Amino acid sequence: MTHSNVATYMANKVAVVTGGSSGIGSAIVNRFVINGAQVISIDLKKPESEIGTVQHFDCDLTNENEVSQVFEEISKLHPQIDVLCANAGIVPAWSRITDTNFGDWKKVIDINVNALFLTISHGAKLLKKASGTVVITGSINSIKGDPNIASYVASKHAALGIIKSAALDLGRDGIRVNGVAPGPIATKALISRIESRLKGGSDSLDDYFAKLASQTALGRIATEDEVINTIEFLACEKSSGITGQLISVDGGA
After folding, report:
1. Domain for residue 149, yes or no?
2. Coiled-coil annotation: which residues (predicted)?
3. 112 is in which domain, residue-wise?
4. Is residue 122 situated within a structural domain?
5. Element (H or E) spanning 177, and its range?
């Protein structure tokens, strides 16, 4: 699938991206803009870089009143939305489950699960008018566990459950719901967390990523661009027969 083919689909389409101010969310926003979409970014943070055509809304996605209000404001600008990328989320500091503070646990669940529910439940009305599509950013931890991040693993398993159930609930309205499950991607946020974890140890950052790469079928980790390509595919009509699925982008980990 070439970008030009997707651009035909995205032209004059309305795409809403949560967590669109940084990281993968910002990359999604940029790709959709390049491909002709009218993009709305929802995030508590201001965008890392301003894109003239993107409309930004500040919103605490864990607050139902704010979520309801922001979609009401969107509806005044656009009677329908074609794509909803539910990308907002956090990765907590590494901690054994026995050392995890309950407040920290609840924060992860609130942002990664409750905000996802609110985003879809309030966005569905506008999606229904366009028989739109939802693309959820899950994780390889939606299907596997890892030590020291139990809250994150639990939240991303919940995201998979939402994908499966929401696809059944919304399919009768012509709405598709899918997700992408990135493996480790060398984003600024992940590099910062790994550097913090490796501090005082003998392994370098390069050693850490080389070890991750050696555990994959392709002998390398996936790139951010490959994750965005998959999101782009799930957002466009070329995936029209796909719903309720989570696609891993991890180099075959």
Report:
1. yes
2. none
3. 3-183+224-249
4. yes
5. strand 176-182
Angle between helices 23-34 and 224-235 (to 10 degrees): 50
- CATH code, domain with 126: 3.40.50.720
For the beta sheet containing 133-137, the strands, ordered from the edge strand earlier in sequence to the opposite edge, are 55-58, 38-43, 14-18, 83-86, 133-137, 176-182, 246-249
Give 196-241 pLDDT, tens digit per residue: 777 767 688 888 888 889 999 999 989 999 999 999 999 999 999 9
Q: Which residues pair with 133 in a beta bridge?
A: 83, 176
Q: What is the number of structural domains in the chain?
A: 1
- As beta bridge partners, residue 38 has 14
In this structure, is residue 150 part of a structural domain?
yes
Q: d(Cα 142, Cα 137) in Å, to the nearest integer? A: 10
32-86 pLDDT, tens digit each: 999 999 999 999 988 877 777 899 999 999 999 999 999 999 999 999 999 999 9
Identify whether 80 is part of a domain: yes
Q: Provide the 3-class DSSP secondary structure of residue 16.
A: strand
Determine which helix (DSSP H) or strand (DSSP E) holds 136, and give its type and residue range.
strand 133-137
Q: Which value, in Å, is the radius of gyration of the alpha carbons in the chain?
A: 18
The backbone region for 21, taken as left when phi is positive above 0, alpha when psi lies in -120 to 50, beta otherwise, is alpha
